[in-house]
Amino acid sequence: MMSQELDNARCLSPRRNTTKATSIEALVDEQLAHFGIDKQSDYGQALASTASHLYHAQSDVSRLWEITNQTLADLDKEDRVAWFNAKKFLSFQLAKVLDTLQNPFRKTWQSLSSGNSSQHHYPLFDNVTALFSATPVVVRTATYVYACTEWVDDAFQGKEFTHQIYSRLLNPTNISLANAIVDMEAGPYSADYLAWNFNSGMAAIDAVLANVLQHGDVLVVSRNVYGGVYQLLHDYYARENRMDIQIAWFDGYTTEEFEAFFDKTKKEHAQRLDNGANLHVYIESPCNPHGYVLDVPGICDYAHQHDALVMLDSTLATPVLHQPLQHKEITSRPDYLIHSYTKDLCGSGATTAGVVIGPGYRMFQPKGSSMNGVDWSQTLFWDVYYIKGAFLDSEKAFDVLNGMKTLEPRIMNKVINTQVFTAFLNHHQDIRVNSHAVETHANAKLKQKQHNHSWPCTLFTVDMAGAGLSREVFTRFFDALEPAFSHQVSIGQNNTIVLCPALTSHSELSAEEQKRAGIELTTMRIAMGTDNVKQLIGHFILAARHYIEPEYPGFCDKFMASEDVDALYESTAREVAGQYYGSAPSMATIMQE
């Protein structure tokens, strides 16, 4: 027991890696000697007593952690409440000790001043009160004060988890966001996952591709991916003078389609694979621009049978619609999950940011470590994040954290709007609605299987090709959709956004590639917001009356009647809200009765 106590205490020593101490008392003596303090002086005796208490406290807290891990699962909820609040108060006690230390610390610092203005204040004095902040603190600093040589050496080795070195690597606000998204996505499996935040969704995607892919690899990619991803793959990774990645575009959605395509790809590129290339998978579900879902668990299962890693962009799912990392079978989960925080997770449209979530051993290991066949140098942190500098700054991290607080009710509202608006449009026989919100759509069964409450993706496309509109009439109508529909290129904001993918988000694709992706020149991509959907419908009808009806008489007679829209909205809102609020755990579950 004494040996374990000493091991737990040793991490607090300024000589943690070179100590010869065989007891806590010896650790105290070493500490005083390290800083040149006379142990017999009044100051030395008080310092020695304090240090001794801290070493013992570190060992005791380690024991608390051990007991918690061993017994938490078997505790009833009454005891969990008591344990939480006891630990919370212990944190306040430790903070109070630090606070008490601040005045003598400040006085000593001030005594070193030579009387000129070059002696700036020492920020460590002011940081203790930040521990009591009710929201994550925005830490605006590039670098950090370090404790001593051996501690900062450990920090550079990735062995001092609570000691940031440089905000390009770690920042407290950034870490708060990483913890929050892991909890939201992985739920009961959160302890197995880590996240790294990036300055944009594309930076996150580039990071995971750079980490997973090696020169000459083969990558299966779902056809309907964000246009920026297509450009990144086509213009960089696939170029022979760059990464020479062989891209295989997968057009299907089901497991059966994927299995057939995966096997075909292995045969077509057998020579590459035989020469040492790897075969991996990158998918987007729901996908841009139609919002269709792929059978993620089935695809992951089959890919893992063939030792392929799966990267999933789950931006449009958000954790509200689908939580792929919470599948009970680990083989049915993607290896990496990606979000563009810029979209629904933040929701304001004011911040660009992204994240990659993955198993802890693939995301970070201290230098010199190896786990599950992955060396520390292969982890996302050391291989990419540490050196590329596409980190997320604290202000953006705080914006995303604030947005995430309202994510669920915002998505509920958007789902109501999506179901109402797609039903309204689908009523018109000359308008083709590409959305699994329409229950007769080919992708609806996968949505029902995979999405919580069978809620649809709030992004979809609409094609008015059935009406035979001329290019001029369509563009005049499209331009008139403002201001109810915002002409913007992003998605996931509170306002409803409409654009033509062929001219914007997917303009990087050739005409043939656009057609394969189901994109016509007149296709409209609609990203539903939280605004009043009946106002949107009214504006849509008015624009059609003004610009389409004169050229195509009778077009507007095919819209749903006003009273039917009212009834549709009321019934849909009741149903979706009932699903959302009805999914809350029962009181018996909460009380474990």
From TrEMBL:
GO terms for biological process: transsulfuration. Its cofactor is pyridoxal 5'-phosphate. Keywords: Pyridoxal phosphate. GO terms for cellular component: cytoplasm. Belongs to the trans-sulfuration enzymes family. The keyword S-adenosyl-L-methionine does not apply. InterPro entries: Cys/Met-Metab_PyrdxlP-dep_enz, PyrdxlP-dep_Trfase, PyrdxlP-dep_Trfase_major, PyrdxlP-dep_Trfase_small. One of its GO terms (molecular function) is pyridoxal phosphate binding. It comes from Salinimonas iocasae. Transmembrane segments: none annotated. This is Cys/Met metabolism pyridoxal-phosphate-dependent enzyme.
